Amino acid sequence: MTDICEKLAKLAAEHADECDGFELEESCESCLEVVATSDSLGGTTYELNEKYMRCAGSRVGYARAEGDGASIEELVDETLQQSRIVDASEPAGVLVAPDREEAAVLPEVQALPDAAKLAGIARHAVSLLESRARRHRAVRCIVRTLDQRRLVSNSLGLSRACSHRHTLVLLTYIAPGEREMHNVVVRSYAEDSSDIDVAELVSRAILMGEGSLDGGTIESGKYPVVISGEVMCQMLVGFWQLFSAEKVATGQSYLNGMLDKRVGSEALTIRDGSVPRWGGPGCLAIDAQGVPRLEHDVVRSGIFVSPLATAEWAGELGLGASTGDCGRRDTLGRIVPNDLTVVPGNLCIVPGNNDIDALFSAMGDGVYITDIDDVYHSFNLASGGISTPVRGIRVRNGRLAEPLSALSISSNLKELFANVSARGDKVSWVDLEDLNAYWCGSPDILVSSLGLVGAMETH
Amino acid sequence: MTAFDNLNSSEWVEPAAETISLPLAHGADFSELFFEDKRETRISSNGRHIVASSTTHMTGAGLYLMSGTVTRYGYTNRLDAAGLEALASRLGGLAPWRAGAKVATALPTEERVFAPHNTVLRDPADVPSCEKALLLNRVCDEARGFSPKIVEVHADYQDRIQNVAVINSEGLLARERRVITTLRLFVTASDGGQMNAAWNNFSSGHGFEYLEDDAERSKMIVSTCKSAINGLMARPVSPEVMPVVVDSGTFIHEDCGHPLESTHLVGGTSVFYGKIGQQVASPLVTIGDSSAWPELCGSFAMSDEGVEAMDNVLIKDGILRGYMVDRLGSRQLGMPQTSAGRRQDYRFAPVARMSNTYLRKGTTPTADIIPSVSHGLYVREVGGGNVNPTTGNFNFLAVSGNIIENGELTYPISNINLSGQSIDALKRIVAVGDTYFPDSGSLCGADSGLIYVTAFMPRILIDGMMVG
Description:
The structure holds 2 protein chains of 2 kinds.
Chain A: H1 3-14, E1 23-37, E2 45-57, E3 61-66, H2 72-83, H3 115-132, E4 137-154, E5 159-176, E6 181-190, H4 198-211, E7 221-227, H5 229-239, H6 245-249, E8 270-272, E9 296-300, E10 303-304, H7 311-316, E11 326-328, E12 340-342, E13 346-349, H8 356-363, E14 366-372, E15 385-396, E16 399-412, H9 413-418, E17 420-431, E18 439-454
Parallel strand pairs in A: 7-14, 13-18
Antiparallel strand pairs in A: 1-2, 1-4, 2-3, 4-5, 5-6, 7-18, 8-9, 8-13, 9-10, 11-12, 14-15, 15-16, 16-18, 17-18
Helix pairs in contact in A: 3-4
Chain B: H1 13-26, E1 30-45, E2 50-67, E3 70-76, H2 81-92, H3 129-146, E4 150-168, E5 173-191, E6 194-204, H4 209-212, H5 214-232, E7 240-246, H6 250-257, E8 287-290, E9 311-316, E10 319-320, H7 327-333, E11 341-342, E12 351-352, E13 356-359, H8 366-369, E14 375-387, E15 393-405, E16 408-413, E17 416-421, H9 422-427, E18 429-437, E19 442-446, E20 449-467
Parallel strand pairs in B: 7-14, 13-20
Antiparallel strand pairs in B: 1-2, 1-4, 2-3, 4-5, 5-6, 7-20, 8-9, 8-13, 9-10, 11-12, 14-15, 15-16, 15-17, 17-20, 18-20, 19-20
Helix pairs in contact in B: 1-2, 3-5
């Protein structure tokens, strides 16, 4: 048992009449970010960040401090003070017990890559896009390497540590058309910055930027659609909490009462875990309670088989064990970033074996949705309602036809899930929020029928 | 303990000044340190009991360097002199700066003091946690007792005390203590198998007294519960373009607030770029952003770049007058800096952001606006929104309201998306009411994180928006 576990066990014994024990998380992040832009935006800029965080909790209260200032004793004392106002009869936090003695220490931070190397990648992406795009404005490329370390200990003797590193490349530009401008964002990830395929990223950005530019609109109605993986994973970012055990248990998700029932078509499987799969970036291997983020199905062939759960919410829903999906509130609402809450690792719609042409061919006539403006205010988790502006390209006889830049999805997640009929073979990924390294992924999705709305003419 | 543990002491000035001097030797022409010491408390109730209570103490510093319009930003929470020096050396020396003209620098000699705009009568730091918990219990009891149809209640109490200090190479040294008190209420209503949820965020720059006023607190509870219950009777709306009456300032926040931030104007990437002096809205429309309006949660004495709070008129009588401009934007656009530079905390470089955005009241009696609409939508509450500053396309979620038929409110609506285009929607404003509707504050997320803002306006009539 580590020194920290021994200290926590000793403190827990001293305060046994006040709480069930203590858990403690130490983590540190180190990040180097380089941003190269077109000359009109000023050139290359740098960010260099380092942060150390320590937080302690009992089954009812949490205290958190950043920096080297707070000792374990101080945090435990603060936790005890907070615990006193909480109703101890309520089901609350559950410390995770290890099945054998464990010992771990917070891993050392690895040296970040050379800034000049990252700057080279970023500048290459900018200049390549400027040379290949028909028209462009405000080209910007961010290359960010994030190194994360985590140690979780508790007074039951759990002591686990892990680390994770990835590089994110984010390429954005404005595609100016005759009647409108289109703001394009594409991403790529790699464990090592050398593995980033800049040419592929640039091609994807140009296709997205020019494909729907100066497009028209459509008659409102139901259409077969192919939702691109880039769009679908962003939508997943907007509605992933549908699968949160907390939202399910409290009725904030329409999946309340739907465990082991059909919520989508046979073609829909959604999986979560920490291991990099289908080109995904992976994430920290243990959650904030020290539970391994093991791969598990959330929806299997259309059946809702398991929500994303912390130890507390697993208990609330009678699941037996945490699914390893506990994170700090830090990842979501970063204003009071201490409470433990449900956070996915790599939440992904499992890909199929169709390339994009096969999906278009299967669709025949319909709409290829290639971009989405907003995901955070587009979904009503309680009703399943979707309402969000998107862009795309009309597909006729299985071939791309005219661009569409003024339309919205006006539908329901129940309709979307029920009508998934085929999946593409490549997965796109998007991070839940900057710097936090939790991800959503999706392949291209063929949906046999979805409500679309055309847009109004402007003055 | 470090020299920066207590931002109210003067001990940190000397090492901070040394830190900002270092990058100037590497080629930066501007250097700024932003210190933060923040304490937050959050207490949560499931409607029956207090289920969680937590405190956070975070300290850190961000170092912002410029050479012309090229920037570098770094942060650390190693706040001893060695930690800051390491950050300054590494950030300054990451890569050679572009050769630029050397500018004169002046290290701070005395502190500037800005007048606070918010009054705090009961500092949350002096209120025992048990008193905060009791108040939360009362809130939940009242919400549960409002109607048998209210079946679930969740409530959070939250307070934040943020001490910040800015010291820069232009000789500025300034500090501010900011307090935010918040109640978040989430209720679920149920009737005849139908369920509907509603939530509200009530934030204030006041202290604990903000939530102690029984009458004011009741208004918060009643409005949230009514919203949830009314939503039970909501009917779907077929997508169509129709006149829209709006009471919520979120409309202007999304429609033109974000596109008027200098961040979105550099490189011509906002629909408002190059339009100063041009008609961008109906002549009935005057819009501004004021961090100096008293007693609002978006108000502050100084920006996170140390600029004194100001009232910044952006659109006057429909003509575009100016933008919200941070230090970098000032250099990029060649325009005066405003008090717009804001950030969530030390981990973010400051970016031009809104504070309290307003549409100035007009002359149409508020009560006359709905009767003037033969068929349209009345939006009472907005749940949030989004804008693409480049295209100007925006959308927001109408969480409660009614369909208007023949000048009268008919059946309720709930969670309907409205979309439009910035300038087009501003030009379509055909009536501006004569009374402001208050805004209880909310969080706005953008490049420099989540910050508290308000957005308020009188009732307005837009002659056409896409609904549904």
